[in-house]
Amino acid sequence: MEVCIAYMREQAVMLSIKDNIIFIDDEAQPIKGISQKDLQDFSDTVNAIPYSPGPGYQALVNAKRTAFLIKLLGHAVGEECMDKLSHILDSVHFDVLEFLGENPDN
Fold first, then answer.
1. Would you call 34 helix, strand, or coil by DSSP?
2. d(CA 63, CA 85)
3. Which three-class secondary structure state does DSSP give residue 21?
């Protein structure tokens, strides 16, 4: 199973599990304790949001992605992996804050 955990520079950031190893954009990551069920639960949560073409829909999806990324950070091992997840989280969280009108430009 593969799920989109973010969009960065208009490119999807994909997470998958193959042979119990977590991959982000086809690069193995030391994230322990995340299962196919966790990915399915995340996917179901995102898919349960009724689609709307407005920016509110994307903000809600990104809020769900933010929560999942925080969960991943709690299971990450190693500074490099944590930095990668933190960078992705910052991007997704910024999009949510921007929708709420709470970005640094305001």
1. coil
2. 15
3. strand
